[in-house]
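Kindly inspect this today.
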Amino acid sequence: MRTVLVHTLPRSAAGQLSIWGTLLAFVPLPLLAFAHTRSIKKAVVWALAIAILIEPLQLVIDLATGFPSFVVDVDDMMLQVLGSVAGLVLTALMVRVPRAARATGWRQIGVSEGAR
């Protein structure tokens, strides 16, 4: 039996779909956390905690049931965190742009009267 110490990401089409699917699945998570908490700081904590804790939780379930499903993967954890970070950036932009627009006036950013 051969032990693999480093698992690399697959380069096949199915592997690419898995990578992008995992990454994009976590982009909305910070927005949902912000909608629930109304705080960017709390949204950061919740989004990253959920993204980081999914894989260890899967490991605990695998060990507790005694039926290994081999679904625990460090690559998934990294992609989940990256997806959450991308979602945090989008959430921060969505929150700050309207605040800045209200503070400076809509006309200064090129929004017409009818578009408000």
Remarks:
- Helices lie at 13-25, 28-37, 40-65, 74-104.
- The mean pLDDT is 79.
